[in-house]
Amino acid sequence: MAKLYFNYSTMNAGKSTVLLQASHNYRERGMQTYLMTAAIDGRAGRGRIASRIGISADADTFLTSDDVYAMIARQLDQTPLACVFVDEAQFLTPDQVWQLARAVDDLGVPVLAYGLRVDFQGKLFPGSATLLALADEMREVRTICKCGSKATMVIRQDAQGQAITEGAQVQIGGNETYVSLCRRHWREMMGDHMAETP
Questions:
Q1: 65 is in an annotated binding site
Q2: 126 contact partners, CB below 8 Å, separation of at least 6
Q3: Which amino acid positions bind Zn(2+), per UniProt (predicted)?
Q4: Is the Cβ–Cβ distance between 56 and 93 less than 8 Å?
């Protein structure tokens, strides 16, 4: 039975690497996959999913105005799909997450979504919040903080490495902009002096 999966983490945990490897595993066995990514994130080039370790693949892009159910249905009309992979899933709208769930339920195709859980202020992205509510299964892709503990938060930093505490929820960037931290170090960087009390 097809399911909706949400694979979440902080920045630089290897979500795209895991996605690309999983898609490769299907294709290596002669099964077709459909890759999608947010049009807003063009760091690897438009319509490209890329990993920091150097692997990449072409993908269809979605805008917040797109019907992702219709995109999947059109692809299924052209070729049988073993699985749909969605990168940068935090940029989905809540309606688009429901469309993914509908594709799972009505088209019978598994959908694996990969994205950030929270933004630099510790708030859920709307797409991620809806995925947390609707996903049949959730998996955390883990990375570590500078202290060696599991990183669960991310800060946005300026050119001097200082944490930015205000701003738009979405700002595209990589290692030069974002740093993954454990909650304690995130609180320290964000100016929560209570972080030092046991």
A1: no
A2: 93, 94
A3: 145, 147, 182, 185
A4: no
194 alpha carbon, distance to own chain's centre: 31
Q: Is the pLDDT of residue 174 over 60?
A: no
Could you tell me if 141 and 14 are in contact, meaning their C-beta atoms sit under 8 angstroms apart? Answer: yes
Residue 173, pLDDT > 70, answer no
Q: Which residues contact 78 (CB under 8 A, 6 or more apart)?
A: none
Q: Say what the pTM is.
A: 0.84
Using alpha carbons, select from 103, 104, 119, 114 the residue that is nearest to residue 139.
114
pLDDT band at residue 198 under the 50/70/90 scheme? very low
Task: Give pLDDT, residue 124.
Answer: 92
Angle, in degrees to the nearest 10, between helices 68-78 and 94-107 = 30
Three-state helix/strand/coil letters over 80-122:
CCCEEEEECHHHCCHHHHHHHHHHHHHHCCCEEEEEECECCCC
28 is in an annotated binding site: no
Nearest Cα neighbor of 49 from 82, 83, 89, 81 is 89
Measured at the CA of 178, the angle between CA 137 and CA 23, to 5 degrees, comes to 40
**Is 87 assigned to a binding site?**
yes
For the chain, domains (ranges, CATH) are 4-142 (3.40.50.300)
Q: Which amino acid is it at 123?
A: K
Catalytic positions, please?
Answer: 88
145 is in an annotated binding site: yes
